[in-house]
Specification:
By secondary structure, the protein is mainly α. Helices cover about 70% and strands about 0% of the residues. The chain is globular, with a radius of gyration of 19 Å.
């Protein structure tokens, strides 16, 4: 009887611990997109630390997008380019691994649309915007909200693309 209770308690603790670990595998998209929308290097750096601590295999896409956003906020052209290239490498690798992930294409579109032309990082904007429009309804609510918010200032995505009333 005592062994049964002990086993039940240990099982419960294991489930709670596993749930806590699983929660650490998920990105807080609300905080992530708030950081991406802000032109605040401190918020970007804070979010980079949070994303870096995640154990999910998808973290490279988010980390890469944050680095590329950060590149526009750091000082010095050499530093800007270095940070941008590091982020570019991570985001593109994540898209290559999981090309069907529409959210990753949205991250890339946000960066491409705002990247300086001399970087040559504009070639996927049409394909990415088409995929986002096509798959919008299948995305989590928080991502849909981020897309709609972004579309209000985008030249490529427009709120009417998502049949919003």
């Amino acid at each position: 009887m005592v062994l049964k209770k002990l086993s039940l308690i240990l099982s419960s603790i294991s489930l709670l611990f596993a749930g806590a670990l699983k929660a650490q595998d998920q990105i807080d998209r609300t905080a992530f997109y708030a950081s991406m929308a802000a032109d605040d290097i401190n918020k970007i750096n804070e979010q980079l630390k949070i994303v870096d601590a995640l154990s999910t295999s998808e973290k490279d896409a988010y980390y890469g997008a944050l680095l590329m956003k950060k590149a526009g906020l750091v000082k010095g052209p050499g530093n800007k380019l270095s940070v941008f290239k590091e982020g570019h490498k991570k985001l593109e690798a994540a898209i290559t691994k999981n090309n069907a992930n529409t959210e990753f294409h949205f991250l890339r579109l946000m960066i491409q649309e705002n990247a300086p032309g001399f970087l040559g990082y504009k070639s996927d904007m049409k394909n990415d915007s088409d995929l986002i429009k096509k798959s919008y309804k299948d995305l989590p609510q928080v991502v849909q909200h981020a897309i709609v918010d972004y579309s209000k200032k985008s030249k490529i995505l427009k709120p009417q693309d998502f049949n919003l009333q």
